[in-house]
Amino acid sequence: MAGTNLAGPEADALELGVVLRALADEHRRAVMTELAADRTDSERGCSSFDLPISKQTQTHHFRVLREAGLIDEIDYGNRKGVRLRRKDVEGRFPGLLALLEAEHRDVG
């Protein structure tokens, strides 16, 4: 079943302040460090992240990441998938994903 891509901002409209506010939260940053460390950039289910928060709160965090332009969210009706917008983020903020990947290695 094909999903509907829930669109975030265009790559050239990504704003540093919005991105930094999105990354300021420890749960959102944990999602981003995992995605940055996974070089396959494959789609993952929202429930595949080990977040100690309610499903409703997870939904909020994924929406913030999407609206910041860091991830694509794909809605399948009864579930959602997420994918890192690596090319867009690297193009707009070179080195940011390397920092997140390094944080993942340090914590993991």
**Count of individual beta strands:** 4
The SS-based structural class is alpha+beta
Label the overall shape: globular
Query: What is the residue-averaged pLDDT?
Result: 94
Strand content: 5-15%
Question: In percent, how helical is the residue content?
Answer: 40-55%
Unreliable segments (pLDDT under 50, ≥5 consecutive)? none
End-to-end Cα distance, whole Å, is: 34 Å
Order of strands side by side in the largest beta sheet?
1-3-4-2
Major β-sheet profile: 4 strands, antiparallel
Order of helices and strands: EHHEHEEHH
Rg from alpha-carbon coordinates: 13 Å
What is the count of DSSP helices, taking H or I runs of 4+ residues? Answer: 5
